[in-house]
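Moderator note: this is an archived Q&A kept for reference. The question asked for a predicted structure of one protein chain; the sequence and the answer are reproduced below.
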Amino acid sequence: MYQIVDPDPRLSSLLLPAMVLHLDGCSGNIPAALSPSLHFFLRGGSEILGHDGEYHPVPDAYLLGPFIEHFHTRYQPGTVAFSVCFRPGVLYEACGIHPAGLVGAYRLLHEVFPVAACEALMQARRQQVSVSDGLAAFQAFLLAVLPHSKTGLFADVLMKVQHKIFSPMLDIAETLGFGQRQLERRVMDAFGLPLRDIRRMSRYGYSMLYLLSKRPAHGELTQIAQEFGYYDQAHMAREFVSLIGHSPTQLLQKIASDDPAYWLFRIAAPDFQRLFYVT
């Protein structure tokens, strides 16, 4: 169902590995995500379930911002899609877009990048090229529109002290050599979210990865919740319901079932980490 492709070395400071997806008429429950991402449908397409209870079509090529709510999507038969996440906090340096204006929203590619590059990518869809040729077109597009070998990013500085992400803000600021207000501004500029939301997303993200990597035995969730900074198991369950749509117990039951909507969570844990986590 999926293939992982490492980014071109010239873009490795901006992008995580890309994913090639074969989604034949299935649906998907997509969890909240801190990282903006680029999406291109070589064939088929998808629809998102809105708050009005109706499904709404998704563009063939778009930039998706950070989103702190889960959503449900369904794919057309024969859908082939490419997606790639930006490394957290690099959207402005990569695209010139402030992430705060893109939280929970998307932009069409031609609204963000040069029209000629977008047109060359869409030509691959219109011509119904092979998956390998479509992937080559997607990779060529990324190289054409994104800066190469970007260094000195604030996000890289922050990720170096990610082990302190749950420390008091004063401790983080002192470690980085910033004042607290300066740190708050820099985090908001880089991620589009305040530090409290970064902490919330990090806590849920790493606890979810742990659950996918080491399915807990009965009674272990309380200990896991405490290890990842939740007040208790009930606190973790509420956060999971908000960000994924299910409590940890419910999520694990869904993954173990034959419900095709949970294909994303069945990706092998090492691959899941490569695709969505900065190590």
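Archived answer notes: Residues 6 and 17 are 4 Å apart (CA to CA).
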